[in-house]
């Protein structure tokens, strides 16, 4: 069973991992400040070496936070598996953070606006997280906002432009991709109960493209 947090032993140092998008990042964060961090343009295969370098620079952590999606199938699974292994080895909890939650932590307060996070699904559509509700949409078939919105994410420019062209009140933010520091901040909030529970498992808005054959896996060859 995964260790539970106790109010008497609140985490002081959060190790955060992100490989949901085109890049990946690792950060050791305390009090909202980065103690050590690494970023790379590659995917989850680089994370283990990045974690090693971060912990050599500043050892020790009390909580692991990892982005769970939406995002790259391979990146999410690699980062989440590594996060579980690190937490198990350290005897500490691991929490999941959505890409939208991490991006929201990077933004100032948006009074009167609903945050939309628009992400590329690489299938000609966009993932939309609308105030915590994930949907998939074509750019030409976006849902109508119920009031003023702010848009973040790597497809924010296209989505904001479409909404503005339809006459909606839209603010384009500069938050495009999650950073490990903000994953850490959101993860700590979740661990403290300030965000609703979320299992540290991949969050897929659509089924993965790779599927098993109808009859399941082939049997192991004999001889």
Instruction: Report the CATH C-level class of the largest domain.
Output: Alpha Beta
Specify the biggest β-sheet: 5 strands, mixed
**How many separate domains make up the residues?**
2
State the CATH superfamily name of the largest domain: ATPase, nucleotide binding domain
Number of strands: 10
Q: How helical, in percent, are the residues?
A: 25-40%
At the fold tier of CATH, the topology name of the largest domain is Nucleotidyltransferase, domain 5
Within the largest sheet, what's the order of strands? 3-2-1-4-5
Question: Which residues form runs of ≥5 with pLDDT under 50?
Answer: 4-8, 216-223
Supply the number of helical segments.
5
Description:
The chain is an alpha/beta fold and 223 residues long. It is built from five helices and ten strands, in the order E-E-E-H-E-H-E-H-E-E-E-E-H-E-H. It has helices at residues 47-57, 73-90, 99-105, 156-165, 180-191, and strands spanning 14-18, 24-30, 33-40, 63-69, 94-98, 114-120, 126-130, 133-137, 149-152, 170-172. 42% of the residues are buried.
Core attributes:
223 residues; alpha/beta; 5-stranded mixed sheet; 25% strand; disordered C terminus
Question: Can you summarize this structure?
Answer:
By secondary structure, the chain is of the alpha/beta class. It is 26% helix and 25% strand. Strand 6 and strand 7 (126-130) form a beta hairpin.
Layout: helices, strands, pairs:
Blueprint: E1 14-18, E2 24-30, E3 33-40, H1 47-57, E4 63-69, H2 73-90, E5 94-98, H3 99-105, E6 114-120, E7 126-130, E8 133-137, E9 149-152, H4 156-165, E10 170-172, H5 180-191
Parallel strand pairs: 1-4, 4-5, 6-9, 9-10
Antiparallel strand pairs: 1-2, 2-3, 6-7, 7-8
Helix pairs in contact: 3-5
